[in-house]
Amino acid sequence: MSFCAFLGGEVFKSHFEPGIYVCAKCGYELFSSRAKYEHSSPWPAFTETIHEDSVAKRKERPGAYKVSCGRCGNGLGHEFLNDGPKRGQSRF
Question: Which family does the UniProt entry place this protein in (predicted)?
């Protein structure tokens, strides 16, 4: 499943089938469906990445990082600290 190919709307927000979400540009593994959860944002929400280097992060403001693919640099959105489903978890 390609992640962050947002042309025409987000098709994976309500998609909860087992699988791996990969970068739409280079195919690198980003998130597992096991880390996906329902959230009120218009985008899919995940608690963690598959690999430590799945994403690169750049601090944008307190509590938020700009996130891109760790392999090719494709923009993926944000990581919001302490906004996950459990206390202390992030939301990607």
Answer: Belongs to the MsrB Met sulfoxide reductase family.
Residue 90 dihedral angles phi and psi, to the nearest 5°: -90, 165
Residue 20 φ/ψ, nearest 5 degrees: -120, 135
How do residues 18-43 score in pLDDT, each as one tens digit? 889 899 899 999 999 999 988 887 77
Q: Whose structure tokens read 């593994």?
A: 29
Which residues face 91 on adjacent strands? 80
Give this prediction's pTM: 0.79
Per residue, the 3-state secondary structure of the chain, as one string, reads CEECCCCCCCCCCCCCCCCEEEECCCCCEEEEHHHEECCCCCCCEECCCCCCCCEEEEEEECCEEEEEECCCCCEEEEEECCCCCCCCCCEC
The pair of structure tokens assigned to 92 is 């990607």
